[in-house]
Design goal:
The complex is a heterodimer.
Chain A lengths: L4 E3 L2 E5 L4 E6 L6 E7 L5 E8 L4 E4 L2 E6 L4 E6 L8 E8 L5 E3 L3 E6 L1
Parallel strand pairs in A: 2-11
Antiparallel strand pairs in A: 1-3, 3-8, 4-5, 4-9, 6-7, 7-8, 9-10, 9-11
Chain B lengths: L3 E4 L2 E4 L5 E7 L5 E8 L3 E10 L2 E4 L7 E2 L9 E3 L8 E8 L7 E2 L3 E5 L1
The chains are: A mainly beta, B mainly beta.
Chain lengths: ~110, ~110
């Protein structure tokens, strides 16, 4: 399967702590994206990192990409209860399919 | 407002009764796709379309049909639904060029 894999599958932390999620993939990519999904709702795009970038920031989000290891990580700093959601990485295959990882469920306790 | 609209949001139907889930986007996007989301399996792509009259199979196309007669619409058709198609379905669109995707709010389908 070309599907990306994420770990951990689930993560529980306290407000104020940092949350780190990892994504691994198998194909070559020209960019990797991260999405957020609140329970049962549509996905919302968070950030896109291109294959020639190693790190990217957006507010409290920091994404890294290591194309040699075919892996990416999403760091959410100073987490809030409102960050509780599922997070997915996604990338386009060489046949233009947009493929998603299996997701990480993040629970942030007040 | 830029958006992807799916209808219906919820649907309960019986085995074998043909149904269509509509998807429409107002962003002039070339790329549109359908996904199903099941517990433990993440999102799996059913079909995608690069432009009008161009459709391709995703990873789980069996039991589904799509059409792309207009740029804004990409309906998902289940000719003879079965219980294993009970799932949460999402439509998404994006510009060509492998950019960010915009998602509809989802259609929760139950086939009994």
């Amino acid at each position: 399967s070309q599907q990306g894999e994420e770990d951990p599958q689930a993560l529980s932390i306290q407000e104020g702590e940092n949350a780190t999620m990892n994504c691994s993939y198998k194909t070559s990519i020209n960019n990797l994206q991260w999405y957020r999904q609140n329970s049962g709702r549509g996905l919302v795009h968070l950030i896109l990192i291109r294959s020639n970038e190693r790190e990217k920031h957006s507010g409290r989000l920091r994404v890294t990409l290591d194309t040699s290891k075919k892996s990416s990580s999403l760091l959410i700093t100073a987490s809030r209860a409102a960050d509780t959601a599922s997070y997915f990485c996604a990338f386009f295959s060489n046949t233009d399919k947009l493929i998603f990882g299996t997701g990480t469920r993040l629970q942030v306790f007040p | 407002e830029a958006q992807v609209t799916q209808n219906p949001r919820y649907l309960i139907t019986v085995t074998g009764k043909k149904l269509t889930v509509t998807c429409s986007q107002n962003m002039n996007h070339e790329y549109m796709s359908w996904y199903r989301q099941d517990p433990g399996l993440g999102l799996r792509q059913i079909y995608y379309s690069m432009n009008v009259e161009v459709t391709d199979k995703g990873d789980v196309p069996e039991g589904y049909k799509v059409s792309r007669k207009e740029k804004r619409n990409f309906p998902l058709i289940l000719e003879s639904p079965s219980p294993n198609q009970t799932s949460l379905y999402f439509c998404a669109s994006s510009l060509i060029g492998r950019t960010e995707a915009f998602f509809g709010q989802g259609t929760r389908l139950t086939v009994v």
